[in-house]
Write a sequence for this structure.
């Protein structure tokens, strides 16, 4: 149960990224993103690292999305600051979730 509470943010980040990819009609990537948390079933270092790298990639995708939509809104003369704040927080949460593997229980479980 203790580790499930630490894996829950990983699941939520993957679900949010899958929704983002689904909106962009990237269905193959959406399915892969939904399957990423299931890698944690295997208790080894490689599975933990794959999930960490995935979360970092998710964070960079959110940053790329900020620039993409900010450019569109700027061209339309609309305000983009609220969009940047919201997506910036989402990017930060993805980067922070990658740090969940630094906890003692996760290190023991995955041999880190």
């Amino acid at each position: 149960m203790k580790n499930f509470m630490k894996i829950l943010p990983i699941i939520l980040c993957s679900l949010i990224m899958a929704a983002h990819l689904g909106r962009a009609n990237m269905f193959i990537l959406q399915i892969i993103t939904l399957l990423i948390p299931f890698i944690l079933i295997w208790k080894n270092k490689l599975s933990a690292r794959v999930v960490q790298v995935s979360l970092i990639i998710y964070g960079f995708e959110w940053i790329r999305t900020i620039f993409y939509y900010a450019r569109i809104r700027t061209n339309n003369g609309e305000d983009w600051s609220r969009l940047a704040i919201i997506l910036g927080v989402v990017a930060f949460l993805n980067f922070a979730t990658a740090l969940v593997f630094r906890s003692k229980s996760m290190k023991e479980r995955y041999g880190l």
Summary: The radius of gyration is 16 Å.
